[in-house]
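Entry type: protein chain
Record version: 2
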Amino acid sequence: MPRQDVQGAARAAGAQIPRAVWMLGIVSMLMDISSEMIHSLLPVFLVTTLSASAFLVGLIEGVAESTALIVKVFSGVLSDYWRRRKSLAVLGYGMAALSKPLFALASSAGLVFGARLLDRIGKGMRGAPRDALLADITPPDMRGSAFGLRQSLDTVGAFLGPLAAIGLMLLWANDFQAVFWVAVVPAALSVALLFFGVQEPDRAEAAAAVNPIRRENLRRLGADYWRVVAIAAVFTLARFSEAFLVLRAQQGGLAVAFAPLVLIAMNVVYALAAYPFGRLADRMSNAVLLALGLAVLVAADLALAYRNAGMWLWGGIALWGLHMGMTQGLLAAMVAHTAPDDLRGTAYGVFNLVSGIALLVASAVAGLLWDRLGASFTFAAGAGFGVLALLALASARLFARAARTN
C-alpha cells in the first residue's frame, strides 16, 4: 500500500499512539533520570576531584559514547536474526543499571572510565532493539510522533536527573558519591517496568532465523538510507559531548553544585521541542526540517564560542537543546522510513556505528582543541562542521533530485 494511503487510513481511523510507546518512553525517562544525576556532575567530578584534563574528559566521553553506538550494530543485527527485540533491550537496561554503583565507588579516572564503558555498552545493547521495537509497534504515519514522544519523555528524565543532583549536592555539601548512590534507584525501576510493562508484538511470519548481514540483504539498504547515514555522521562531528557545555559554564564561573543547571536548561528545551517537531516531521519535508535543525546547531556553537557566561552561554545551551529536539527523533524516523522492515534493527545498528565513530573523533578533537587552543576555538570548529553538514545535506538532495530526473 502506498505510504499516502497508509497515512490516510491511519488518520481516518483516528489512530492513537500505542500504549507500549508510552511505556518505552517512561522506561527511557527513568533510566535518564539515573544517568543524568551522574553525568551532569561527572565532568566536574573528574576535573575537580580526580584532577583529569579536558582532553581526558573528552576521550572518556568519546570512547564511552561511541562504544554505545558501535554496540548497537551487534544488538540490532541480533534483534533481526532472532526476530526478538525486548530481551536484548532488557539486557541493555540491566547492564546500565549495574554500572551505577560503580560510579559511587570510583576513586580514580580509570574506575570512572570502566563504569562509563559498562553503562554505555548497556545503552548500545538496548538502543537499536528498542528503536526497532518502537517502529514495529507504530503505524508508519505516526512514527515521527512516536519517536518524538519517546524522545520527549526520555528528555524529561534528562532534566529531572540534573535537578535532583543539584538538590542533593546542596543538601549533602557537594558529596558527589552520595548522589551517585541515589541514582541506582530509578535505574532499577526502569528495568522492572520494561520487563513487566512492555509486551513485544507476535511475529507470525518469523519462521527460520536468517543472517541479516548477508550481502544480498545489505544491498536492500538503498541509497536513501545511506544518505541519511552519511549526513548524520557529518552532523555528529558538530555535536560533540555535552560534557563540554558543562565545562564551558564552569569556566564562566558557575558553582560546582549548580553545574547540572546546564543540562537542565538544555533538556527542558529538548523535551518541549521533541514531540512537536516529531509531529511536524510527519507533515513536512524531512530534509528541510533537518537543515533547519543544523542551522540551529551552528548558531548554538557560535554563541558558545563567543562567550562563556550570561545570555550568550545560556542562549547557546538553549539552542543546543532545540536542535536536539528538532533532529534526534527525526533521524530515527528517517532510518525507519528508508530501511526494510526485516532489516530495521540492522539499519539502526549500522547507522549508529557510523555515528559512533564520528562521535569518538568529535569528542577527542574537541578536548584536544580545548587544551591547546581554548574553549572558543572548540565551539567555532563545531560550527564549521555544522556548515559542512548543511552543505552535505544540500548536495544529497540535489543528487537525489538529479537521479529522479534521469
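Comment: Residues 18-198+217-405 form a domain with the Growth Hormone; Chain: A; fold (CATH 1.20.1250.20).
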